[in-house]
């Protein structure tokens, strides 16, 4: 059974991304975790992948949502921690 944990609050700069990254990593020590970066700033992507967010251009959570198929866009952080990345084009998403 999968459990979804969301880190979201309107206030800026209050450690949502930092907490999401740390909790994802800690949970991945005992569980399989798929972290989903849903912020067009791509800060969780930078934090977990330790690289530029544009390295994943065209292979992000935006494409996963547009195609309603996440599997091709999942990136591996570790064996048990995977990530759907984001960049600023996520702001163009329309359902
Ligand atoms: N416990 C902490 N102690 C000190 N600094 C922290 C702590 N947690 C987060 N920070 C720092 O606070 C800043 C904001 O954190 P973070 O980016 O996680 O916030 P956020 O809520 O995701 O921001 P945003 O609204 O821009 O998405 C960052 O520079 C981060 O390194
Ligand atoms: Mg953030």
Highlighted features:
alpha+beta, 3 helices, binds adenosine-5'-triphosphate
Number of strands: 3
SSE order, as H and E? Answer: HEHHEE
Shape summary: globular
Unreliable segments of 5+ consecutive residues: none
Enumerate the distinct ligands: adenosine-5'-triphosphate, magnesium ion
Report, as a whole number of angstroms, the end-to-end distance: 27 Å
What is the helical fraction, as a range of percent? Answer: 25-40%
Strand-helix topology:
Elements: H1 16-27, E1 33-36, H2 43-49, H3 61-67, E2 74-76, E3 81-84
Parallel strand pairs: 1-3
Antiparallel strand pairs: 2-3
Helix pairs in contact: 1-2
The protein binds adenosine-5'-triphosphate and magnesium ion.
Outline:
This protein has 95 residues and is an alpha+beta fold. It has helices at residues 16-27, 43-49, 61-67, and strands spanning 33-36, 74-76, 81-84.
Detailed description of the structure:
Strands 1-3-2 form a three-stranded mixed beta sheet, covered by helices on one side. Helix content is 27%, strand content 12%. β2 and β3 (81-84) form a beta hairpin. α1 (16-27) runs parallel beside α2 (43-49). It has one domain. It has helices at 16-27, 43-49, 61-67; strands at 33-36, 74-76, 81-84. With 95 residues, the chain is α+β, with helices and mostly antiparallel strands. The radius of gyration is 13 Å and the shape is globular. It contains three helices and three strands; from the N terminus they run αβααββ. The structure holds adenosine-5'-triphosphate and magnesium ion. Magnesium ion binds at residues 16-17, 39, 43.
